[in-house]
Design goal:
388 residues, mainly alpha, f41 fragment of flagellin, N-terminal domain, three-stranded antiparallel β-sheet
Length: 388
């Protein structure tokens, strides 16, 4: 074979045909794979840059699952907050029923002067029974403020009531013109505190023994039923808070949600949960026969419920803010993945229209080269024929 000598034209056509075949094979491979860079041999810079972009996109894509779970954890907690608010509103309704129902006592605690006084509603001081400088002192009643009143020269019933109001007491003159002091509805279950009347000014008024309140059986039965209803709602508040979890994380049961937003782990968000069972919200179960006996008890429950509502609204706002942040980062990550994958594709993907045109051109070029080689061989054969 080493003795075979090719003419310059034959050699030229063979080299052209070989080059065309190599180019055609490359073009067909690009069409088959859809990539113009299939290995580091094709273009090291583009290949490794593309790999890096794809790897980062893959890492962020893996984080999307965790971010998605975080969104669901926040939504579960928000759903729990909404339900808890409804339950608190139900408990408020029950407590308000206590205020609207009949007073739980047929007779409230009462104390009155032993005898009629000569005064009137306009001026209790008559100069005989009650005199200016006389002092009426009543110990704290039903959680009220202890009262000490020094009568003036023209002490009216309205003035006396204004002084007694802070101690859950009210004063009136009965049909016998006795001064009667009674507990208000707020403290209907309480007995008036110790009463001391000092005739400092030389009056002669005295007060009899303090009468204890007398419970109304029917009314108390109704109130006991309201206590049971209230306690049922309180139990559901605790149960609902415990059930507001997703994938083992409950932000209403003091759990912590930590989310990672980038592949380096440097971009994070940590959300600390709260304890919003009944105890955490400052709500306690009531005791029939002890609670809801009068308006003070109902108002105390309403105060606690209002504070719980405020806490729930504050936490709902916080959850909403955090949920918005997480959803924004979720959308950002999705968009960033698309950007990275598009950038990677731009470095490696082939233009199929261009490659198809190249393939057609190379096929034509190959056909021409084969024809040229055939003509060169024929020319060489003619020369050899002459030598014979």
């Amino acid at each position: 074979m080493s003795g075979i000598v090719l003419s310059a034209s034959v050699r030229q056509n063979l080299l052209s045909l070989q080059s065309t075949a190599d180019l055609l094979a490359t073009t067909q491979n690009r069409l088959a794979t859809g990539n113009k860079v299939n290995s580091a041999l094709d273009n090291p810079t583009n290949y490794f840059t593309s790999q890096g972009l794809n790897n980062r996109a893959s890492d962020i894509s893996n984080l999307l699952d965790s971010i998605g779970n975080g969104v669901q954890v926040l939504q579960a907690a928000n759903t729990g907050i909404t339900s808890l608010q409804s339950l608190v509103d139900t408990a408020k309704s029950i407590a308000n029923q206590v205020l609207q129902t009949t007073v739980g006592y047929s007779t409230k605690s009462t104390v009155s002067t032993a005898a009629a006084i000569g005064g009137t509603t306009a001026n209790l001081v008559d100069g005989v029974t009650i005199k200016s400088g006389d002092v009426l002192a009543i110990a704290a009643t039903g959680g009220g403020t202890a009262t000490s009143i020094t009568f003036g020269a023209s002490e009216s019933l309205a003035q006396l009531n204004a002084s007694l109001a802070a101690n859950n007491l009210t004063a009136s003159l009965d049909g016998s013109n006795k001064l009667v002091i009674t507990t208000t509805n707020d403290a209907a279950s309480s007995t008036i505190g110790a009463v001391t009347y000092t005739n400092t000014g030389g009056g002669t008024a005295t007060f009899g023994a303090v009468g204890a309140p007398v419970a109304d059986a029917n009314s108390q039965a109704i109130r006991a039923g309201l206590v049971n209803q209230y306690n049922g709602v309180i139990t559901q508040i605790t149960n609902t808070a415990q059930d507001a979890s997703f994938n083992g994380i409950n932000l209403l049961n003091s759990d912590v949600l930590k989310l990672t937003f980038n592949e380096t782990g440097k971009s994070t968000l940590s959300i600390t949960g709260v304890t919003y069972n009944a105890t955490g919200l400052g709500l306690n179960s009531l005791v029939a026969g002890t609670d809801f006996l009068d308006n003070n008890s109902a108002n105390k429950a309403l105060t606690a419920l209002s504070a719980a509502s405020t806490s729930l609204r504050t936490e709902a706002s916080s959850l909403g803010s955090n949920l918005s942040i997480v959803q924004i980062r979720q959308d950002f990550s999705k968009s960033l993945i698309n950007v990275l994958q598009t950038g990677s594709s731009n470095l490696t993907l082939a233009d199929t229209n261009q490659e198809a045109a190249n393939s057609q051109a190379l096929s034509t070029r190959q056909s021409i080269a084969v024809s040229a080689l055939s003509l060169a061989n024929q020319s060489q054969a003619s020369v050899l024929q002459l030598l014979r």
